[in-house]
Write a structure and sequence with these properties.
Blueprint lengths: L6 E4 L2 H14 L4 H8 L3 H9 L4 H12 L4 E4 L7
Antiparallel strand pairs: 1-2
Helix pairs in contact: 1-3, 2-3
């Protein structure tokens, strides 16, 4: 694996949101631009990045925690790839 590989272990919606925010910024995208590419609202992207856990994501992380499962987020290369 390259030395520049970016990854983290996500144990909460907040961890997930932080990783999404960093990946978006490394690609030079605003929240609005990312939202537009995905057909979402900027507000939704903002909520994801802030770690606002909806019931689904909160329960998912509770289940994973109870099962002693970690989620590893790995960035698949940059915009140059």
């Amino acid at each position: 694996m390259p030395d520049t590989e970016r990854w983290t272990t996500a144990r909460s919606a907040r961890d997930l949101g932080r990783f999404v925010s960093q990946a978006r910024r490394r690609r030079g995208l605003s929240q609005a631009a990312l939202a537009d590419e995905l057909g979402l609202t900027r507000q939704y992207v903002s909520e994801v990045e802030s770690g606002a856990g909806n019931l689904y994501i909160t329960r998912l992380f509770e289940i994973l925690d109870d099962l002693d499962v970690d989620v590893r987020l790995v960035e698949r290369g940059g915009s140059d790839d």
